Amino acid sequence: MRINNFKQLNEEQIQTIETQLRIKLPEDYRKFLKEVGGGVVEKDASNRIRIDGLGGDIVLDVLYGNDMEHEKASITFWMKRFEGELLEKAVLIGDDLLQGFLVMICDGEDKGIYYWDDSYRFASSCDENNMYWISDSFDGLLRLVAGKKRIDS
């Protein structure tokens, strides 16, 4: 997967996000924000992820950072927009081409990366079930796509 990256975040910027959201981001995601900063994913076969619970694929579009030059690709923009709609300890970390979101639950027994089909694109999605597990961790998400092609920024 190739990412056209945004600005890298420093420790203070990451702590500001954590304070605003009252959340502790996992170390693997913090490292990604420091080294890559988020970015737009190059559109090729490497950004497709099969989600068994959906019986279909999603196509990664953006992994959020917090670069205000790209406001609609920032964690805080989307968290404000969906305030009160997400589970506790959850943060929006990206989206797919068809407007579903990648959600990271940062703590607890449901910790991991999920796909939120908020637009009910898939037939299996409904009000009671539109979150689908992808990976136990952010690094796990990257490994899913890295198996197809190397990860660059």
Automatic annotation (TrEMBL):
Gene3D superfamilies from the UniProt entry: SMI1/KNR4-like (3.40.1580.10)
SMART domains given in the database record: SMI1_KNR4 (SM00860)
InterPro entries tied to this protein: Knr4/Smi1-like_dom, Knr4/Smi1-like_sf
Top-level lineage group: Bacteria
Pfam families, alphabetized: SMI1_KNR4 (PF09346)
Transmembrane intervals: none
Span of domain Knr4/Smi1-like: 8-144
Protein's UniProt name: SMI1/KNR4 family protein
